[in-house]
Structures are given as structure tokens and as C-alpha cells.
């Protein structure tokens, strides 16, 4: 038990919680190495790795050459030798050069060696829009990662989860693609860095708000949108439940389906494109498992099926509260039939 | 001749203060002629014991290649990319390393893995098709055979770097073909290695072709070893059919890496005598006369000539080597003819440390299908969709 002051919850940003997670992991385990472009002296372009090079030295928090395949490829070799690399990809769309390594090696090394060579690599990817980024700075690439067996794919929506999930990702013996919703980097919550609250493990969804009339299934940057929509819907008599998936792989069918069976209606909400996007998979799973409980088809509210738009137009693309509410209104299926 | 020697000010703006001209890259440049030992004065200095060891390994390797190719005809191997003609590189690669070092082979380098001590049947698992990697990479310090070209090179750099950080004097040797040097991962690996001064050696086996494409369509560089200069590491050219030369050059590069001197790029000039794989028709892209010319420069023949000339090899020794190789082949044949026992449930075993709910359901589905197949009935499909 440390002093009461040290335990006091103070407003902290998600970026700070992520930084703290890496710092604590590095302090506990000398095998943890942070690497990427500008992660050292600068502390990353989002300052998520701020201070780590200073505290742990450049061998533990390394500014690499500017080459994503090289960063992830060398991380594979480092993991083979017993290290636990935490790799930062500077932006979602700049992770693509590393896909070859991710898909051909990182995701399947355990499998192709029959378990003899697991790769405990965490790949941190700032993702998603809403920060006014120019082209190639706002992609939601989760569907690509989800489609690759052997990877865990997680994304926090709260400050607590940012810390807890990243600690778990780093401790995991499997590779984890850790998607950081960059527009939530500066979101704040009261949080005690010296006594962080325990969070549900990777693979567990969490009900962020209970309700009886429909379930909003969402994750990452769309969680606050859905929470706001749920508040707004109250006025119209809708009592919405919000499920934050937190982990796209593994997928928590149990929590999601328990919720949908209770409410009988569901909308999946995410920023990435709808066609071929995560929502299709989620809607199909829910339909397969909860068909007899459903009062209406599972709907999707997603980004348009377009390359991510320029910043001055992104507000038209990103699913906001109104689009979520429109979908909720469409859940009155019986009235239409 | 080099850019630095030209009168720079005439066409270059005044460089910013941080800019310093690089010193002469000559120490990094490869000699224009591939280094040779056999048939030269240097051969006198070669250790007879090493030469005899290399000879035995080459003969065994040649027989191994022939046997593996034969196994494809019997349907025992799905495919085999032979290293016939390249045995000197394969064997020297294995022998240049200490036990604690790591080898990062490509799909063509099963022989290097075998020469390093890996069970031949385990080395062939990928090509046989019963699993991907048939061995625990940590056991012999041999990374899984890599099929996507050049992607294993950054792994070698990362491992060597990690070992160096831990204070272990471990060296990684990464093997790649001439075609693989065009891949982006080749560039990134060499660049990382040089910047980190990682204890890694890159061995390019330039066997003339990437499937059907000749080197001239792969690169415009004077040689592949020249590429080293741009990264700030030495490049070395060696006669890849001269086992003594390859062993010496690789040995120097490994020693240099071990004492903290950083990476080296070695290009071994060799030739692929067989087709790309058993499934390839090499007559479509090269003539017999070219192959015949290379047969004259055969790695086993080069070594045999040297050893016989020095009275180190007599008919008995040649026969003994051949018999040992034959015994290896017979044993390999026999073991490969046994059907591997496979458990389909293994499909779900090693995807994650812990099976996900999704995989548990799918495993239950397959279990039920297998039960039904074997006539035992599919009672209690435990993992019902839930
Ligand atoms: C990334 C990638 N692209 C294409 C292939 C298909 N492929 C297999 S071998 C090969 C030629 C490789 O030539 P080289 O690197 O010279 O090696 P060699 O086969 O001659 O040993 C090609 C194109 C591959 N394995 N990986």
C-alpha cells in the first residue's frame, strides 16, 4: 500500500496510459524492447513513447531506420532470441509495407513450428480518422488484420483499457496487433497510474452501458459515439445497451450474443468500410447464433466504401451519433413489415 | 571514378554544415575477381583436414540432392529445389558456423541445414507436405526454411542484434538467392544490419537464375557484392564452387562479425545444375552448352583434383566417401517411404497459445467429421455454437 496521494486518480489521457503501460512492462521485464520510427528522442509523433529512451536507454527504446518491413522483420528475429519487441508503426497506412512480414511470418511462426517458436510481438498501430489527418493518416485497417489467423487484434476505447490491454498484449506469447484509436489519444479519464484498475482480459467484450431495447456493438473510436447516441436515444424512449468489443480477435461471441438475446435488436458501429468490413462478420455471427431472438435484421453503421476522405470531408464519412440513431430507428422492423 | 572524386562544387550546391564527405569506399568494394583457393597458390595454406571434411560433405550433399529429387518422382516429396552444383556454398555455410550461431536458410538450403546436423527427414518436412517446419528451430539454431524470398534476412539481423544486446557472441548467417536480392526486404535487412553493426553475414548464392530469369534482368549492378558499399559494409566475391574459398571467406566474415566488426555481404558465384525444382523445365531458358561448361567447374571435381594432386585422397578414400553417402541415401529413402502419421486435430493446436472460442468450435466440427468418417458416430459434438 503506497501513500494515498500516489493512489489518487487524476485526469490522464489515453496516450499517457499507453506510455505508462510500456514503461511498467519495460521496468518489470528486461526483455521488453520498444522500437520504431521516432520513438526514441522524440517520443513518437504522438508522444506515446515519451521518456522511454531516456529512462531505459536507446538499446531498449530504439529509433530504427525508416523501414516498416525492416522494423517488423528484425523484431521477428529479436523475438526468436527471447526478446519481447513492442513495435510502433507510425500511422495506420504506413504499416502496409510490413504486411508481408506480418502475414507471412509473424502470424504463423508458432503454427509452422508446431508451437516451438511463438513470437511475442506487439505491433502498435495508431489507426482511424477524426484528427484531420491528410491522406494515409486515417485508415481503419482492422479487417486486414482480422482476416489473418494467428494474430490477436485488440483496440482500447478507454484510458483504463489502454493501460490494461497494452500490458496484456506485451505479456502475451502471441503476436498482438494493438490498434490505438488516435482520436482518443487525448481523451481523458480519472485514472491512477500507480494503482491501475484491473480490466477484462484480451478476448473479452465489455458492456459499457446496459439497456433493454437494442444493442450497439462497437469498438475503439466508435465507442464514445455509441455512448453519446445511447444517451440521446433515451429521449426517444430507446434504452440502448453498448457493447465495447475491445478485442476483435479473439471475438467474444458469448458477451455479444447474450446482449443481443436480451435486447433482440443489434447495430454494429465502426469507422472502417462496411463492405468487407468487420461489421459483416459480426452481423453474420450474431445472426447465426441469435436468429430466433432477433426482432429485426442486424444493421451496420460504417464508414462509406471509399478511400479515406480528405480531412475537410471526413465528418461526412465518419459514422456519428445521427447515423447511429437513424439505424436504431430502422430497428422497428415489425412496423415496416 | 567515384562520385566524391569529381569536381563537386560545379554541380552541387554548397552542402549544409553537417554534411561530411565519406572516406574512400574502396575497403568496402569487392575485388573484381571472385576469390579462389583450389588450384591456386593459396591452396597450399589450406588445412588438409578441413579439405577432407569438405570433400566428404560435398559428396554426401550431392547424393542427398539426387535422392531428394528421386523422392519427388515417387511422390514422397511434393517438390524439391535441388542444390546440385551449389553444394560448396551449402556445406561451407554450415561449417563456417559455431554451434551457438544461427542459420537462416531459404527453401533451397535444406542441405545447409542437414550439413549443420539437422535430421534430413525433419529438413524435408516442408517439402514433403506433412507440416511446415519439421524441427524445433532452437535445437540446431536453424530458422524455419523461408519460402517468401528474402523475408528471412531481417529476422537474421534482429536475432543477431538481440544476441549482441545480451552480450552473447552469436553470429547469424542468412542465405538468399540472386533473385532475392531484388526484394525490398534484402535492402531493409542490409541497411538495418549496417546501422546496428549487427553480427550477421549475408550469403548470396548467385546461381545465375531466379527460376527462368537471368541475373542480367535482375540487376544492373556490377556485381551483387557491390551492393554492400551503399550500406557501408564490405562486399566479398567468391567462387561459389570452390568449397575452400567459400569456407575461408565466410569464416572471415563470421569472425569479423563475432569480434564486433559488423555485417558482411558475400556473393558466391555458382550455378544451378538442376532445374529450379523438379517441376521446372530448364530447357526453356538455357542451353545445354552452358550447363556443360559449369559441369567442368564442378565443386566436387575441383576439390577432388586438389586433394588427389596433393596425395591426400586415394581411391579408397573416394570409395569410402561414396559409400557413406550411399548409406545416408538408403536410410533417407527408407525413412521417407514410411507414411507419416498425421493428426488432423493438430490443425487447431498451434494457432495461438490458447485456442480461441472460434477455433474450439471448429475443432469440434472436425472432430465430429472424423468420428463420422471412422464410423464411430458423432456423439457429443461438445463445442456446439456457443
Ligand atoms: C516474395 C516471393 N515472390 C515470388 C516467389 C516465387 N519464387 C520462388 S523461387 C523464385 C526465384 C528465386 O530465385 P533466387 O532468389 O535466385 O533463388 P534460387 O531459386 O535461384 O535459389 C521465385 C520467383 C517467392 N517464393 N517469394
UniProtKB/TrEMBL annotation, chain A:
<dbReference type="InterPro" id="IPR005475">
    <property type="entry name" value="Transketolase-like_Pyr-bd"/>
</dbReference>
<protein>
    <recommendedName>
        <fullName>3-methyl-2-oxobutanoate dehydrogenase (2-methylpropanoyl-transferring)</fullName>
        <ecNumber>1.2.4.4</ecNumber>
    </recommendedName>
</protein>
<dbReference type="InterPro" id="IPR033248">
    <property type="entry name" value="Transketolase_C"/>
</dbReference>
<dbReference type="GO" id="GO:0000287">
    <property type="term" value="F:magnesium ion binding"/>
</dbReference>
<dbReference type="Pfam" id="PF02779">
    <property type="entry name" value="Transket_pyr"/>
</dbReference>
<dbReference type="GO" id="GO:0009083">
    <property type="term" value="P:branched-chain amino acid catabolic process"/>
</dbReference>
<dbReference type="GO" id="GO:0007584">
    <property type="term" value="P:response to nutrient"/>
</dbReference>
<dbReference type="InterPro" id="IPR029061">
    <property type="entry name" value="THDP-binding"/>
</dbReference>
<dbReference type="InterPro" id="IPR009014">
    <property type="entry name" value="Transketo_C/PFOR_II"/>
</dbReference>
<dbReference type="Pfam" id="PF02780">
    <property type="entry name" value="Transketolase_C"/>
</dbReference>
<dbReference type="GO" id="GO:0003863">
    <property type="term" value="F:branched-chain 2-oxo acid dehydrogenase activity"/>
</dbReference>
<feature type="domain" description="Transketolase-like pyrimidine-binding">
    <location>
        <begin position="12"/>
        <end position="187"/>
    </location>
</feature>
<keyword id="KW-0560">Oxidoreductase</keyword>
Automatic annotation (TrEMBL), chain B:
<dbReference type="InterPro" id="IPR001017">
    <property type="entry name" value="DH_E1"/>
</dbReference>
<feature type="domain" description="Dehydrogenase E1 component">
    <location>
        <begin position="66"/>
        <end position="330"/>
    </location>
</feature>
<dbReference type="Pfam" id="PF00676">
    <property type="entry name" value="E1_dh"/>
</dbReference>
<dbReference type="GO" id="GO:0000287">
    <property type="term" value="F:magnesium ion binding"/>
</dbReference>
<keyword id="KW-0786">Thiamine pyrophosphate</keyword>
<keyword id="KW-0560">Oxidoreductase</keyword>
<dbReference type="InterPro" id="IPR050771">
    <property type="entry name" value="Alpha-ketoacid_DH_E1_comp"/>
</dbReference>
<feature type="region of interest" description="Disordered">
    <location>
        <begin position="1"/>
        <end position="29"/>
    </location>
</feature>
<dbReference type="InterPro" id="IPR029061">
    <property type="entry name" value="THDP-binding"/>
</dbReference>
<dbReference type="GO" id="GO:0009083">
    <property type="term" value="P:branched-chain amino acid catabolic process"/>
</dbReference>
<dbReference type="GO" id="GO:0016624">
    <property type="term" value="F:oxidoreductase activity, acting on the aldehyde or oxo group of donors, disulfide as acceptor"/>
</dbReference>
<feature type="region of interest" description="Disordered">
    <location>
        <begin position="367"/>
        <end position="386"/>
    </location>
</feature>
<dbReference type="InterPro" id="IPR017596">
    <property type="entry name" value="PdhA/BkdA"/>
</dbReference>
<protein>
    <submittedName>
        <fullName>Pyruvate dehydrogenase (Acetyl-transferring) E1 component subunit alpha</fullName>
    </submittedName>
</protein>
<keyword id="KW-0670">Pyruvate</keyword>
